[in-house]
Amino acid sequence: MKTAALTVVGLLGALCLCLRTEANTAWDLLRQSAVNWTGNLPCGGWDCDCEFRKPKGCCCVARPLFELEEATFMRMVGLWEGLTDLNEQIDEVTGGRNVAFAAFLSSTPGCFGPFTRNVSIPYQNITLNQGYGYNAALGAFTAPRAGLYSFSYTVYSNVGPAGERLYLKVQLMKDGQVIASSWEDNREDSEDSATQMVLLQLKQGNQVYVELVSGRFLCTDTQGYNSFSGFLVYPLTDVPV
Ligand SMILES: *[C@@H]1O[C@H](CO)[C@@H](O)[C@H](O)[C@H]1NC(C)=O
Ligand SMILES: *[C@@H]1O[C@H](CO)[C@@H](O)[C@H](O)[C@H]1NC(C)=O
Ligand SMILES: *[C@@H]1O[C@H](CO)[C@@H](O)[C@H](O)[C@H]1NC(C)=O
């Protein structure tokens, strides 16, 4: 038993290199009690020396090292949380940025119109619809998010032989409000086309569409001559009314 205790003390000395130099009976007693103790020690047993005397030895760095490790870990957790936050913010800014559509009036024999009211033109041949803002059934684009948008349309009509009346008027609308329009009314020229391009600040849910004004008509049997397209230039958080 004594040998075992001495071995432990010897090991302590060899491991720790923090053997005291002065004799101290009270200290010896405390150390012996600690070494003899068979239950659990809060300081892990052999580093009780550090607890009592606070010396600066190699074995006594265990606690500061543990504290450093703990602090580093907490700092890493903090950094990780910060990065997660940043990622979410980036997603918020970049997510839903891909909004673009292009659609053509499908070639139909005869003319579209005339109607007794203003009718939105159903550009049914959708060639692009990123972000799914364009709805062919409505012929309308609904802004999936607030932002600055660019829209363009090209209107073309061919009424056939010279002398027929080329009579059309279309208008680009934003929620019932006329933004831009193109028109023709003549008999000298049986076919013509016009293009408009506009930039619009939209709130989420605003609708943009192209209307054929009542009484007018569009005649086109050629695919690709009548088009409507748009895209998000950049998102906005604050859109004036
Ligand atoms: C520690 O154990 C040894 C061996 O059993 C014994 O001689 C000694 O008195 C003990 N010391 C203390 C402080 O309990
Ligand atoms: C849709 O438009 C594309 C490109 O202009 C064309 O190649 C295709 O034939 C059109 N489809 C229909 C059904 O009109
Ligand atoms: C249709 O559009 C024309 C031209 O902008 C306008 O004068 C007329 O009031 C519109 N009709 C309806 C019912 O909105």
Automatic annotation (TrEMBL):
<dbReference type="InterPro" id="IPR050822">
    <property type="entry name" value="Cerebellin_Synaptic_Org"/>
</dbReference>
<keyword id="KW-0964">Secreted</keyword>
<keyword id="KW-0732">Signal</keyword>
<feature type="signal peptide">
    <location>
        <begin position="1"/>
        <end position="23"/>
    </location>
</feature>
<protein>
    <recommendedName>
        <fullName>C1q domain-containing protein</fullName>
    </recommendedName>
</protein>
<dbReference type="GO" id="GO:0005576">
    <property type="term" value="C:extracellular region"/>
</dbReference>
<dbReference type="InterPro" id="IPR008983">
    <property type="entry name" value="Tumour_necrosis_fac-like_dom"/>
</dbReference>
<dbReference type="InterPro" id="IPR001073">
    <property type="entry name" value="C1q_dom"/>
</dbReference>
<feature type="domain" description="C1q">
    <location>
        <begin position="94"/>
        <end position="239"/>
    </location>
</feature>
<dbReference type="Pfam" id="PF00386">
    <property type="entry name" value="C1q"/>
</dbReference>
<dbReference type="GO" id="GO:0099558">
    <property type="term" value="P:maintenance of synapse structure"/>
</dbReference>
<dbReference type="GO" id="GO:0045202">
    <property type="term" value="C:synapse"/>
</dbReference>
